[in-house]
Amino acid sequence: MKYFLSLFILILFIQISFAQEEENPLPYKFEEPKFDTAPRYPGGENAMFKYFADNIKYPEPEKSKGLEGSVSLKFIVIKEGKITKVEALNGTPGAPNFVKEAIRVLENMPFWIPATKKGKPVDAEYYLTVPFELN
Q1: How confident is the model at residue 31, as a pLDDT?
Q2: Is 99:123 a contact under the CB 8 Å cutoff?
Q3: HSE-CB for 123 with a 13 A CA cutoff
Q4: Pairing of strands 124-132, 69-77
Q5: Are the C-beta atoms of 113 and 37 separated by less than 8 Å?
Q6: How many C-beta atoms lie closer than 10 Å to residue 78's C-beta?
Q7: What is the pLDDT of residue 19?
Q8: CA atoms within 13 A on the CB side of 25
Q9: If we measure between CA atoms, which residue out of 128, 67, 59 comes closest to residue 100?
Q10: Can you tell me the distance from the alpha carbon of 109 to that of 20, in angstroms, rounded to the nearest whole number?
Q11: Would you call 41 exposed, middle or buried from its count of C-beta atoms within 10 A (0-12, 13-18, 19+)?
């Protein structure tokens, strides 16, 4: 009888444990934000769009094929405002020169206003999509 009672209690305990895990499968872990203000291009978004419009040279192979698309990039704006660790996340199929051109222009950008944390500049990751459109 003790054996069956122990087995019943064990099964009940296991069911309660699984039920609790299903309600909250991942415990909430608070992570403090990496920055209070995000990095930004001097002059704002409009100035950044103008910079790209003035500096992108549409790659000839893609232009002659009439290809359009975009390139998604990830990079770090370090606390001095310089862009580093540029990485293409995706591009346009059949248009490898879009990636090369987007990276070239991004790496030659003027320094940004860095992100801040508690009033002090900090390194911050940033994501940007660069469109390639024929006019």
Answers
A1: 73
A2: no
A3: 6
A4: antiparallel
A5: no
A6: 19
A7: 47
A8: 1
A9: 59
A10: 52
A11: buried
